[in-house]
Amino acid sequence: MFEMMQAYVAALMRRFRKDEQGAALVEYGILVGLIAVICIAAITIVGTQVSAAFSKIASQITGI
Fold this sequence. Notes:
By secondary structure, the protein is mainly alpha-helical. It has helices at residues 2-18, 21-63. The longest helix is centred in the middle third of the chain and has 43 residues, at 21-63. The model has no long low-confidence stretch (mean pLDDT 82).
């Protein structure tokens, strides 16, 4: 009985060690989310600076 249980636990452990597909999917999801947050933050920061630059240029053009 003990040997059969030991074999079952060993087979179960091997199966869990081989099955890494779910973990990879979660890792890719986290990476995609992190990249999206970084892109949104960068676009927000750069967009504000670009808007300020265009406003400055527009005020100088209309002042001529």
